[in-house]
């Protein structure tokens, strides 16, 4: 099996590749990444197992010629590349449209003209917008942010592939935890950094807003199984582990860092809610990681990677 991973040098990609490399079914992994976040951590450190399987191509999704060439001899595409932001932020619509919408469209066009047999798209629960009720997997998408809109438009292009090849659209919760190319703009990861090194975190709003989360370990385990099995029905799947209030995260952090202080910014504001049911059809087809892990245990694991 030959795999191309867009955004493969990024947060999820860097962790996923470490899981995929040892599998004997995989002959080659092509990383297609523009390195727009200037995060080179994936390329440094101890040698990866079976690292001779990896090929790196620095390229843009909108570079049609380079993208088409990169798809030669590829069986499976895992599309992780995206411009990302915090769940309810609104900024620079062109920035998100170019990558998440038109970049995904260009990739789909290239796949349609290739011999690719399997396509996995990492979308986001942001396509659901906000809700005080639990969102089910069949819930109608209703994005409320520029980011969510751009991801939904990307989904619409990917959905065309479902009639032609095996295709899964995965609506991921907010991913947290350590990976070589960790994102520190993700809320839990940022809190971990500030709690450990600054002994203080800042909470926007009243802290009672809910968000759906999933650890990087569970995310990559699920992606690995979907990739290797390649027999899961085409469709839309939610990939969420737990719904947490921001104050739940604070409680877990306080248990680990008792001296940590926290302050509120605009505490009078009640920010938008989003709760997503962790139950998913994927549980019928893969060995879903068992249960909802303890946030404290996940954060203690993260803490092991902080250097001082």
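Q: What amino acid sequence fits the structure above?
A:
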């Amino acid at each position: 099996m030959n795999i191309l991973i867009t955004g493969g040098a990024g947060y999820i990609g860097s962790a996923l590749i470490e899981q995929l490399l040892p599998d004997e079914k995989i002959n080659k992994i092509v990383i297609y990444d523009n390195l727009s976040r200037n995060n080179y951590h994936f390329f440094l450190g101890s040698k990866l197992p079976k690292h001779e399987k990896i090929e790196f191509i620095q390229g843009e999704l909108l570079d049609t010629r380079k993208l088409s060439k990169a798809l030669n001899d590829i069986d499976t595409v895992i599309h992780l590349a995206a411009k990302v932001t915090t769940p309810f932020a609104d900024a620079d619509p062109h920035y998100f449209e170019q990558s998440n919408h038109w970049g995904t469209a260009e990739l789909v066009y290239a796949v349609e003209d290739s011999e690719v047999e399997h396509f996995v798209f990492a979308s986001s629960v942001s396509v659901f917008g906000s809700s005080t009720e639990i969102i089910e997997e069949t819930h109608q998408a209703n994005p409320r942010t520029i980011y969510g809109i751009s991801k939904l438009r990307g989904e619409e292009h990917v959905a065309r592939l479902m009639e032609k090849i095996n295709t899964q659209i995965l609506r991921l919760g907010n991913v947290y935890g350590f990976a070589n190319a960790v994102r520190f703009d993700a809320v839990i990861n940022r809190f971990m950094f500030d709690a450990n090194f600054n002994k203080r975190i800042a909470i926007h709003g009243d802290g009672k807003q809910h968000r759906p989360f999933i650890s990087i370990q569970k995310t990559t385990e699920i992606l690995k199984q979907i990739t290797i099995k390649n027999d899961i029905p085409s469709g839309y799947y939610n990939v969420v582990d737990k719904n947490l209030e921001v104050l739940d995260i604070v409680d877990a952090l306080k248990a680990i860092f008792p001296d940590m202080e926290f302050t509120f910014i605009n505490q009078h504001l009640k920010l938008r809610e989003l709760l997503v049911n962790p139950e998913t059809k994927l549980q019928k087809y893969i060995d879903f990681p068992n249960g909802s892990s303890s946030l404290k245990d996940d954060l203690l694991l993260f803490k092991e990677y902080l250097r001082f």
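Q: And what stands out in the fold?
A: The radius of gyration is 19 Å.
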